Input
Amino acid sequence: MIFSLFCLIAYVAGSLNFSIIVLKLKTKTDPRTLFSKNAGATNIYRILGEKWAALVLVCDVGKAWIVPAVASLFLPISSLLWIFFFLLLGNRFPCFHGFKGGKGVAHAIGFSLFLTPFYTGISLVGWCAGYLIFRHAFAGSIVLAAVLGLGLIRMPGAGISGRLAVVLCLMFIVLNHRQNFAALEYRKHRTDA
Output
């Protein structure tokens, strides 16, 4: 019963998308209609600049940190890692925003920051390296997710169930970036032609 309640709480928390909320309050527009059409901090950076993007990032990371912080008082690590999936699910398919949301990267950072701050720090360096090498924000996000996944899988008490949840979460984040991969492949083919 407690596990189910926290799955619901995580989904609802993930459904509160601060990029959509901030942009609608500030400009009455929706980030899902502009630039990359993504409901995330990177797109807010393109639309409103770094101050607003930082606000969105801090809010999304903060709420994603609070979920495992509270749930850890009641649930073991293996269950917490499944809560992560529901947090990502809410972010991608938010009940408050027409079931069309973000890609889950800020939520992955916040969630992991509570459980494995060391790997979260390394993952942020990985994001920078991925961005500098490939010159695409999504490449940095994939590196970041891989490092976070490694840290979460290594958590004491994760067990097979928790590790399965982490793999599922990583696959979910990668799938959420499939349009980025397709666009990159399209650009590559255009330059090769």
